[in-house]
Specification:
With about 400 residues, the chain is α/β, with parallel strands linked by helices. Helices cover about 25% and strands about 20% of the residues. The protein has a 12-stranded mixed β-sheet.
Length: about 400
């Protein structure tokens, strides 16, 4: 399970175990597991030579650090008008610190958070070798943008879908750009695109396209839960040229009202930059007719139970924000299934992946707050998860075979 513990403060998550749980192999296929070295984070990502104590292992509450310049941004200090709001920052800081301590202390006593066995060989060397096979994916994403728009001929009332079922022996002729691809089998299937191999977990569906070519999704189905991980503009992205980002006006053009069912749960990942946080709450969600209902925090820790960055760092923070909302609906459904109320100020604590923007799955966390057999969608996805539809121009990125190794290689 992705969720290894549920407490009053939130959830402890095991991202690696969840990925491996999704790779269900058929007898005719070799067994695979996600490379564990990607989650082998033992020390914080800091270069400070000063020795500091771990606040998460202290028995007493740390007092809020006094600072002349408080930062709520992952890449730059907050603006002058926000600097004065130290009380808000202090509340978030205390929530992160005390909530994480509470979850970790219960986990350390129960040993519910699995510790990774050290991999054989040089981790850095392994990582360098693994990245090479993924280099063709950028080429594939560019191809997705250049494919001419064509309306597939489908029967009335049918959406443009291509199905991989038990009778599908091979899948060499997939069109992932203008058709939603479904793997409806109970097994993981391997597909080849532009000479590169990708693992498709069972009961997954996806569309590979950019924001201008989402129309196959609009005719596919209405969704009860939508998770969005927008490529936010920031200085780090501009400097690294790691991926294309979207400006605020472009994000507003995502057709959430056309994709969402009545009272759909929408969860949006936001950087710690206050400009983006205010945009989601005050402009984006109202534009989509969504009411904000909760604010959660994904807290990143090492396997030594330390924050990956100092909590009071003026540059990088050890957490990201998730804004949850519900689509406003005037329609009343007589047979509507009752769900649990969404709690506010909750934490998602996990050891993060070393891979950029490789976030943990929210499928098990959100399951209690949406109806059973709900249709779920992840936008700007970079991986697939069973029972969900995934969309993005890098939607298969972390399904590349190079990110996995055969079970025989690790036993």
């Amino acid at each position: 399970m992705a969720v290894v513990h549920r407490g009053s403060k939130g959830w402890m998550l095991d991202h690696l175990t969840y990925i491996n749980k999704t790779i269900l192999n058929c007898e005719r296929m070799k067994s695979y597991t996600f490379r564990p070295e990607y989650f082998d984070i033992v020390k914080p990502h800091i270069s400070s030579s000063t020795k500091t104590t771990n606040p998460l292992l202290k028995t007493k509450t740390s007092s809020t650090k006094e600072s002349t310049e408080v930062s709520c941004s992952g890449d730059e200090t907050i603006s002058q008008d926000i600097q004065g709001n130290t009380a808000c920052y202090s509340r978030v800081r205390d929530l992160i610190l005390e909530g994480t301590k509470c979850l970790l202390q219960s986990e350390m006593t129960k040993s519910l958070l699995p510790r990774m066995n050290a991999s054989n060989g040089d981790h850095n060397s392994c990582l360098a070798n693994m990245i090479t096979g993924d280099s063709r994916l950028a080429e594939l994403c560019e191809l997705a943008k250049q494919v001419p728009l064509e309306d597939k001929e489908v029967e009335d009332g049918q959406s443009a879908v291509q199905v991989i079922d038990e009778e599908t022996q091979s899948v060499p002729d997939l069109d992932p750009f203008s058709l939603v691809t479904e793997n409806i089998t109970n097994c993981t299937r391997i597909v080849t695109l532009m000479g590169e191999k990708y693992l498709l977990p069972p009961h997954t569906s996806f569309l590979l396209s950019d924001i201008t070519r989402m129309h196959p999704l609009l005719n596919y189905k209405k969704f009860d839960a939508i998770v969005i991980d927008p490529p936010w503009e920031n200085k780090s992205v501009k400097r690294s040229n790691r991926y294309s980002y979207l400006q605020s006006w472009q994000i507003k053009q995502i057709p959430i009202p056309a994709l969402a069912s009545p009272e759909c749960l929408v969860a949006t990942w936001v950087t710690n930059r206050q400009k983006h946080l205010r945009f989601v709450k005050e402009e984006l969600y109202p534009h989509w007719a969504i009411d904000v209902v909760a604010e959660w925090y994904w807290v990143k820790i090492t396997r030594s139970f330390e924050f990956v960055y100092p909590l009071d760092s003026p540059h990088k923070k050890p957490y990201e924000i998730l804004i949850l909302g519900k689509v406003k609906s005037s329609a009343y459904c007589q047979n509507r299934e009752e769900t649990e109320p969404i709690p506010d100020q909750q934490l998602l604590v996990s050891v993060p992946s070393k891979l950029h923007s490789h976030k943990p799955s929210l499928a098990e966390v959100l399951a209690g707050y949406i109806r059973s057999n709900a249709h779920c969608l992840e936008l700007f996805a970079r991986s697939l998860q069973p029972g969900w539809t995934s969309w993005g121009n890098e939607v298969l990125k972390f399904q590349h075979l190079d990110y996995f190794c055969s079970v025989e290689d690790v036993t």
